What does this fold into?
Amino acid sequence: MTAPPHEARPTGPARALPDTQQGMRRRNLARVMHAVRAEGPLSRAAVASRIGLTRAAVSTLVDELIRTGLLEELGPERPGRVGRPGSALAVSGRGPAGIGAEIGVDHLAVCAVDLRGEVRARAVRHGTNRGRSPEPVIEELTRLLREVVTEAEREGLWPAGLAVAVPGLVARDAHTVVRAPNLDWHDVDLGALLPGEFALTVDNEANFGGLAELWLGADTPRDFLHVSAEIGIGAALVVDGSLLRGTRGFAGELGHVPVHPDGPECVCGGRGCLEQYAGEEAVLRAAGLELGEDRVGLLAGRAADGDEDVRRALRGAGTALGIALTGALNLLDPEGVVLGGALAGLAPWLLPSLEAELARRTAGPPCPVSVSRLGPEGPLLGAAHSVVRAVLDDPAAVAGRG
Amino acid sequence: MTAPPHEARPTGPARALPDTQQGMRRRNLARVMHAVRAEGPLSRAAVASRIGLTRAAVSTLVDELIRTGLLEELGPERPGRVGRPGSALAVSGRGPAGIGAEIGVDHLAVCAVDLRGEVRARAVRHGTNRGRSPEPVIEELTRLLREVVTEAEREGLWPAGLAVAVPGLVARDAHTVVRAPNLDWHDVDLGALLPGEFALTVDNEANFGGLAELWLGADTPRDFLHVSAEIGIGAALVVDGSLLRGTRGFAGELGHVPVHPDGPECVCGGRGCLEQYAGEEAVLRAAGLELGEDRVGLLAGRAADGDEDVRRALRGAGTALGIALTGALNLLDPEGVVLGGALAGLAPWLLPSLEAELARRTAGPPCPVSVSRLGPEGPLLGAAHSVVRAVLDDPAAVAGRG
It folds into this structure.
């Protein structure tokens, strides 16, 4: 890797920058970018009043951001307003882009998102990756990546970093897949397999899905549990707007919370884990169906058609989710739960029993459960946006390029 | 209240101060205090090299801290060293003190801790508070408080704030006890009952116990679960050196994680919660004993004497703790678990079955479980130290007084 992975890692708030004059300037550049991103187009005076700096200080910062291509001027504001007309500022639709990628059990996907948050290029390949060794999968992903970058460059964008969502546990180094049971991958360093020119971050798909929900969801609270599933069940714990990652990076393993402590054995070494009752494989088995591709589509289709075996299996999964979530809610006291990923598509049949279980185990009003509108797109979008957020959080770090 | 409660609240790191020149000065004052506290006595030059500021900048900060009585000079360092002799700096043993208080089910306690971390005054009253209304309990606590403050003042200390540990859920306002089932208190605003001259913080005893472990424990990691018990079972979740409090302030309710989802009914409205298997009442019942005062002493004494009923009951409690902790560890991935409060005294009989349960439910090496050396003192010390930490984190906020 030419750039250390932490450069592209979804950074914390900009105040984590060093506490010097130089650090203060960098934090203030970030404040300008975030203000314009959130509320733009804005005049320099409006930015100054939003972030509590003088007009003169903001002008210096804005000039730097325009010079380096992160902001652009839309020309003078329309006349008729009080005072000297200012030029409205907007986040640039050219310049740095976040490249997101997803290695799914059944697909590969790559996209490019600009600083405005728009998807500007995208490539997908369907087909199972189960049991394939990492090298050919990453070669295929790299081809999609090249396609997307070429398309993005045609539009005046350049890749500020690459973030990859994987269905497994990722080490805190943010490039090693420690364990992805449903790909059968162990200790795979994606940094060594992917092209070296991209600053790389790898994270669990549930984590990127949770971040997407935080950044792109409608009225998402800043404290919530994002529960998602493919074959396994994972959760992202978002606490005060940040991911709780755990010491090794393994936090959020909701699928291995014991539901019935003497229940069936689980791959994790435990017994009666949630995954044994609400994982896709368990639900298919309970419904008497085979494990194939597009499992969610199959279950949703049959449930919609009124297949009572499938509906009963999904009710059971909802109950098990309710028991495991009761434990998680007692521990974490979030503002809400969001069902994402594959669970979003099955929500109509999971939610009633899930919510009944929460209600019967809670004295007060139970924690609200909502369904993600991003669904299976969440992890890919979260990955790309994590790179964009890193640029917005420290614009000075990319200002030299482009 | 003369001072808003957040002034004494255990603050986050000093970098949460406003990002201005003034904020930078305040953060640097905090850095000087923390450096001298952690490694003192130190010369000005040694402080400068520790915190990466110039000698001249440090001298200005140190002069201010000496003037306001937070640091003191120990006189010139002994000769024989290279260069001009500097005067060694130490944290003052006079000036602001943290006042900690605990409302326990069976006792009341108050102590004063100076900036060096030493307990300088203390008062305790034994006797049950079960079923007593808040007013007489707080009157009694206030008498202890006055005793401790008088004694501290005699030694040149003044109270920088009061922090109170309670066996129940506390609202995020940090002064309202929302629910303390074992006192039978509901929605009690301690701010209205305690003397108004103290900046007040109220928190759950498990949280203050966890903070005490973080600040005073030997080799405590920065990510851990602190599990404690009186009649209920609570946990403090310490993530990267900070408490995870939850949206309403109710995080850490390990006692209400379902262990056997179809088990006995619980006061929380659920079924088969951990408290039904490992709470003091459940253990006493399983051992065929009555609920009285000094329940832990009774159980520990009988277990030590080889009472097989008590030992079996404690083994069962350890197994239930292991099941609930398996869920918590999968969700949070901490570096370790610390058994504190009443559980510390029972650890010899709980730990074997608890650790066996974790081992049999975990594929890799199980999370290490240790026993707090602070034991039942933890919450009181954590409360007092939280006030001391707030002073160290923002010395400028108290510099005007004394």
Summary: Chain B touches chain A through 47 residues (CB under 8 Å). The first strand of chain B starts at residue 71 and ends at 76. The two ends of chain B are 19 Å apart (CA to CA).
